[in-house]
């Protein structure tokens, strides 16, 4: 490609604690090499003329490492291969604007793109790389479900938030002798539920990878009653589902998961007679400052992405392979979803501690 002079950075998909740390690390690493750095607002909207493209300088990225959200904005509706276009009659039509995006990228004189996103955004990045955009992906999701990296930044902060909530619910559950059902995010992967459930010493953990039977869940609650433990903490991933059942969607059309905690509360109350309370943490897990380790991962990822560009390594994703950050092909990263191994040591630890998975 020759000498790199000008790069762009964007953030797509759901937000996660640590996005601003990646932006800062990538921007400063590039500026220290003498490159110009620009931020594309709202994923690819800036390139398509529907938002801004702004210069990123030492001043604009100063003091943002600890901030939640993203200074570049983000969207879950920014697919350039199926861009939503309003029609005169008020309906929306999906249009492929990917060629327009590639042209705009070149017209702006960008030599490379750092695309920060989750599995959906990285699939878009992979498709754009096949159309000729030189890019490096950075894995971002609180769900920790991206193949090829041990952790994604934002995940451990989400686990901290969920664990803190579980800790707080223990005392009120015990005081009132109730069953507390805590619903956490994660989509089709149970990483947040598993890690926070074990760390928060939950009694029941329900994850998508292990379909549950409501009878088994209730057995655990009744068993605790016999042991004079008159309260129970149930942690459920939003994508968990019963044997021969289906996940619960609060918005089926958009396949937006949510609401399983309410269903479980009703089922458990009917079967055990216990008073139940349902709590869905939802976007509390996404917001706020990243914890120290997520900041560290994010800063390392940002610097590593710039190093990849300097070496001419494109169509790849930076990944955590302790103790190092390495690169893997984007094709590998988006080949499948990383889900909880049901025979893994964290599940084994939970079972050894007497926690139930409802199976």
Explain what this protein looks like in three dimensions.
The protein has 359 residues and is an alpha/beta fold. It has two domains: 6-153 and 290-322, 3-Layer(aba) Sandwich (Rossmann fold); 157-287 and 341-352, Rossmann fold (3-Layer(aba) Sandwich). Helix content is 35%, strand content 19%. It is built from ten helices and 15 strands. The protein has helices at residues 19-31, 98-107, 119-130, 155-176, 191-199, 214-226, 260-272, 292-311, 330-333, 345-352, and strands at residues 6-11, 36-40, 53-55, 83-86, 92-95, 112-117, 135-139, 179-184, 204-206, 232-237, 249-251, 256-257, 276-280, 316-321, 324-329. The strands form four sheets. It has a seven-stranded mixed sheet, with helices on both faces. The longest helix is centred in the middle third of the chain and has 22 residues, at 155-176. The radius of gyration is 22 Å and the shape is elongated. The model has no long low-confidence stretch (mean pLDDT 95).
State the major sheet.
7 strands, mixed
Give me the secondary-structure category: alpha/beta
Shape: elongated
Evaluate the radius of gyration: 22 Å
The CATH architecture of the largest domain would be 3-Layer(aba) Sandwich
Order of helices and strands, N to C?
Answer: EHEEEEHEHEHEHEHEEEHEHEEHH
* Overall mean pLDDT: 95
Low-pLDDT residue spans: none
C-alpha end-to-end distance: 55 Å
Fraction of residues in helix = 25-40%
The strands making up the biggest β-sheet line up spatially as 3-2-1-6-7-14-15
Q: Please indicate the percent range of residues in DSSP E strands (runs of 2 or more).
A: 15-25%
Return the CATH topology of the largest domain: Rossmann fold
* Number of extended strands: 15
* Total of DSSP H or I helical runs spanning 4+ residues: 10
CATH class categorisation of the largest domain: Alpha Beta
How many domains? The number is 2
């Amino acid at each position: 490609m020759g000498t790199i002079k000008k790069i762009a950075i964007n953030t797509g998909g759901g937000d996660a604690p640590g996005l601003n740390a990646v932006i800062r690390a990538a921007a400063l690493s590039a500026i220290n090499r003498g490159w110009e750095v620009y931020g594309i607002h709202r994923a690819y909207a800036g390139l398509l003329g529907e938002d801004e493209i702004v210069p990123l300088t030492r001043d604009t990225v100063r003091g943002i490492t600890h901030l939640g959200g993203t200074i570049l904005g983000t969207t879950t509706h920014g697919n350039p291969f199926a861009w939503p276009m309003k029609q005169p009659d008020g309906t929306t039509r999906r249009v492929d604007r990917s060629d327009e995006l590639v042209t705009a990228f070149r017209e702006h004189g960008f030599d490379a793109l750092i695309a920060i996103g989750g599995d959906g955004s990285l699939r878009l990045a992979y498709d754009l790389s096949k159309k000729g955009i030189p890019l490096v992906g950075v894995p971002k999701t609180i769900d920790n479900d991206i193949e090829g990296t041990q952790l994604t930044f934002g995940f451990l902060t989400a686990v901290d938030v969920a664990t803190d909530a579980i800790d707080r619910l223990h005392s009120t559950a015990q005081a009132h002798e109730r069953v507390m059902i805590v619903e956490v995010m994660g989509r089709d992967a149970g990483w947040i539920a598993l890690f926070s459930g074990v760390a928060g010493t939950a009694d029941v953990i329900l994850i998508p990878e292990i379909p549950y039977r409501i009878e088994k869940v209730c057995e655990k609650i009744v068993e605790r009653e016999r042991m004079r433990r008159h309260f129970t903490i149930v942690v459920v991933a939003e994508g968990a589902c019963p044997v021969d059942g289906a996940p619960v969607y609060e918005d089926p059309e958009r396949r937006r998961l949510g609401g399983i905690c309410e269903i479980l509360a009703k089922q458990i109350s009917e079967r055990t007679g216990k008073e139940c309370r349902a709590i869905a943490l939802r976007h509390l897990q996404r917001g706020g400052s990243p914890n120290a380790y997520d900041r560290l991962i994010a800063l390392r990822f940002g610097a590593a992405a710039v190093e990849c560009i300097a070496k001419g390594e494109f169509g790849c994703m930076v990944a955590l392979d302790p103790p190092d950050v390495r690169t893997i092909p984007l094709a590998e990263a988006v080949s499948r979803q990383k889900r909880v191994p049901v025979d893994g040591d964290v599940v084994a630890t939970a079972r050894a501690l007497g926690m139930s998975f409802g199976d």
